[in-house]
Amino acid sequence: SISQDFYIELKKSLDLLAPKLEQYEEFILVFPSERRHPKGIRQAFVEFCEGHEITYDVVEKIDKRLITPGRVFGVIEDSDLLSTIQFSEEKGYQIGHEIGLISYNETPMKKMIRNGITVLSADFFSLGKAISQFICKPEPTVKVFPPQLFIRSSI
What we know:
Layout (H helix, E strand, L loop, with lengths): L1 E3 L3 H14 L4 E5 L8 H13 L3 E5 L11 E5 L2 H13 L8 E6 L3 H5 L5 E4 L2 H13 L6 E3 L2 E3 L5
Parallel strand pairs: 1-7, 2-3, 2-4, 4-5, 5-6
Antiparallel strand pairs: 6-8
Helix pairs in contact: 1-2
């Protein structure tokens, strides 16, 4: 099987971010349940926050009222990423200072907007390469791909 790790390796990646998160008072995960994201993401987030004694919340969608200084947001959907940026700017808060932002799944856009958004992402190149090799030469295999971490100015 070829798969991504949405739990153990995600927790390890979050551990690497812990020092950067100390400047924030609360970590909020925007986890839209109707989109059927892997439950391991939510579980890893909750266990990370509890293990590091970080105040946290899990919400279905981003709301302008949630945007207050001292919060860092973990977003999975790009629409929530853009809403968080928009709401922050409307309130006069700067991403990477008063508001922290971590996104999921790397795209070229995330390297560019607001001097870069911190991202936890699948290694799409390695994942695709492994899948194509398996298709061309189907042999029993077990490969688990941990997320990559791109730390940028949004935290």
